[in-house]
Inverse folding.
């Protein structure tokens, strides 16, 4: 077999952003998330990469070496526009004087023009949408390769890489030893030489073993080399509770990576966003932490049938419009927030606006602030722990930049401040559900 030579890296990088079978395989079988592997026969040819998939922001592919530099998003001003009609008789506190504080805005993947193809959709599972994204990008760019535990012969712990080994071969779909720090380190080195590796870690908990490579190397190398070296690496990792996998497989650690400049962080909640954001992540020249909730893998959603569906980073989705309270749900909690909004409408005659950030770094703070300006109340929902989490960070930003529009303190609904239990009844009360969100929303309305 001829050796695989890596393509020559692009000459001028874009500016840095501001911003196998293992021991747990048997556990996932017991959790109902794994099946007996039956690898299909190898074939010498390659099948078509055209699969269902996209969003309304579909776009044609652009070469990594020719796409335009990413735009810089400016942080929204703290000064709020005058509201046309007051909501209460008592006058509001005047907007504070002085310079407007700004924070460096992270850079999103380069925008792409809308697709001219006819838009049709298909019902696709979350894991299938991810599989489509990987297959299509591997057909589009020979620099894309996959590596991780059990991703080849076993097709991945959650079957996301189903059939890719047979289609692309061992040179581009590589099973690895059980050593997360080594796997990510290999990915960093491959990315520095011009490849576009996609690394799969079996759970976000195991990514803690690779923190040195992710934080000290992947995130910082571009800065350390003055922009002369890029690290176009994607690290995929499932997370979240609901499968009785206990405290070493079930937590949510997106807040750890949100803290690190140089990383982009995505947390899609729908099949369409999973596909579109993964394709955007693979094409981006920055390291991306791509978080997939385990509960969502079997969930179906409408995905546009366009093999070039790309969803830009830094664009929040309005899942439901409303005028009484803003509810921001992260990852799976965006779906739980929609359930709570239905209850508020049916039982309390309240219209909640539900927002899904989709990406946490860069964060589309503009859309969140605009919603708060309209509703004057905000509830933030996440599955992670309450201290130092995504919700705590977002609540601080809303409080700082929309204080004069708030009629009540920002409310947060989080997971319990305990390690995730194995017991099913205990696990159920360790992460948020719709009734808790409803109560938090009602509390903001009583706090006028």
């Amino acid at each position: 077999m001829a050796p695989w030579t890596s393509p020559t890296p692009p000459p001028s990088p874009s500016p840095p952003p501001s911003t196998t079978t293992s021991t747990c395989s048997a556990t996932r079988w017991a959790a109902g998330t794994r099946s007996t592997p039956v690898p299909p026969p190898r074939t010498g040819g390659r099948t078509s990469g055209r699969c269902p998939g996209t969003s309304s922001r579909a776009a044609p592919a652009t070469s990594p070496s020719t796409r335009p530099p990413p735009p810089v998003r400016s942080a929204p001003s703290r000064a709020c526009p005058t509201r046309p009609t007051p909501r209460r008789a008592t006058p509001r506190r005047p907007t504070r004087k002085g310079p407007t504080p700004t924070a460096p805005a992270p850079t999103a993947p380069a925008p792409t023009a809308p697709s001219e193809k006819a838009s049709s959709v298909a019902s696709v599972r979350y894991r299938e949408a991810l599989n489509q994204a990987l297959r299509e990008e591997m057909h589009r760019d020979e620099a894309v390769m996959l590596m991780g535990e059990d991703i080849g012969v076993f097709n991945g712990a959650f079957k996301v890489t189903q059939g890719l080994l047979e289609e692309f071969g061992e040179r581009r779909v590589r099973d690895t030893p059980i050593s997360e720090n080594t796997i990510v380190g290999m990915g960093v080195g491959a990315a520095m030489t011009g490849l576009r590796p996609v690394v799969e870690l079996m759970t976000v908990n195991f990514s803690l073993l690779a923190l040195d490579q992710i934080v000290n190397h992947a995130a910082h190398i571009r800065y350390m080399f003055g922009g002369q070296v890029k690290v176009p690496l994607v690290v995929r990792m499932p997370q979240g509770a609901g499968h009785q996998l206990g405290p070493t497989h079930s937590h949510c650690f997106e807040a750890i990576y949100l803290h690190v400049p140089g990383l982009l962080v995505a947390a899609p909640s729908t099949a369409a966003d999973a596909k579109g954001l993964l394709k955007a992540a693979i094409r981006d020249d920055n390291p991306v932490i791509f978080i997939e909730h385990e509960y969502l893998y079997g969930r179906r959603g409408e995905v546009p049938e366009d093999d070039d569906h790309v969803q830009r980073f830094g664009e929040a989705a309005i899942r439901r419009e409303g005028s009484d309270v803003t509810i921001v749900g992260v990852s799976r909690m965006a779906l739980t927030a929609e359930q709570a909004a239905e209850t508020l409408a049916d039982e309390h005659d309240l219209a909640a606006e539900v927002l899904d950030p989709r990406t946490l770094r860069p964060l589309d703070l503009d859309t969140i602030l605009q919603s708060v300006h309209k509703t004057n109340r905000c509830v933030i929902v996440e599955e992670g722990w309450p201290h130092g989490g995504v919700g705590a960070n977002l609540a601080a930003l809303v409080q700082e930049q929309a204080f004069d529009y708030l009629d009540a303190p920002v409310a947060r609904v989080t997971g319990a401040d305990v390690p995730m239990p194995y017991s099913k009844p205990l696990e159920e009360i360790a992460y948020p559900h719709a009734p808790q969100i409803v109560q938090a929303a009602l509390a903001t309305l009583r706090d006028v």
Summary: Residues 340 and 435 are 7 Å apart (CA to CA). Residues 333-348 form the longest helix (16 residues). Residues 317-446 form a domain with the Rossmann fold fold (CATH 3.40.50.920). The chain has two domains: 121-304, 317-446.
